């Protein structure tokens, strides 16, 4: 009896195991029939549909990029009009220029949304192949240095410079609080996007205030520019600092043009935006540079800048690491 009762459960377990194996095999067959459904696999299949091996600069690309057929692009898509979402679609200066570049290269450029201050880390970890996100070309970023701490955080990047912009200030409309430039920001509250050139410039100007015996600027840093605008709109700060195209767009569009006004005259610290390519990827960097140059020559570049009213930001020559 004892032997009999021990054998029966064993047989039962055997049948269950066989059934489990059969289920796993069936699942594997279904997955095999459907193909790999991971995001990366889906992106690869979609890229193969649009890959153009006859595109003018396809052969300039590294072999692995040619085979893959796409580049993962890190971008903070909350920065109107440079990059943003509208009705579920990506729009703006950078996506339009990226589309023109992709035609020259014959591959897709897939935009991935992230907060701006995580983009350099995303390049370091190879989450993204490149970053295109109104990123100002600076020596610190080229060398992989965190400008706020001075610490080395990675190998750095090479920049393909494609726009030249400066930093602007804006306030609530009709409520400038006496602000007419950075010299009058001492003791005032300022909102910026974290990790941007505006953030760096605000820290510099605040130190100057203290150096000359004035009260420091009270700086509030946010994950994105939209949050900074909301803070100003509700009266939580006296002004916002951001790149000129973003500031101009906010002033012209927010509240039908009734929310904000530009102060301080011409933009300060004009510097280039660059496509960031991790160090050690010179072939990819040079292909992107050649693609931007072709968009300038064929007139697509000028059309994009005219569409977004940033013609004054045009570059005549596509520099590598032209920032200071």
Automatic annotation (TrEMBL):
Concerning SMART domains, the annotation shows: PBPb
Keyword Flavoprotein on this protein? no
Question: Which SUPFAM superfamilies does the entry mention?
Answer: Periplasmic binding protein-like II
InterPro entries in the record, alphabetically? Solute-binding_3/MltF_N
Ranges of residues in domain Solute-binding protein family 3/N-terminal: 70-312
* Superkingdom of origin: Bacteria
Q: Where is the signal peptide?
A: 1-33
Keyword vocabulary terms for this entry: Signal
Q: Does the keyword Transport apply?
A: no
The identity of this protein, by name, is AtrA protein
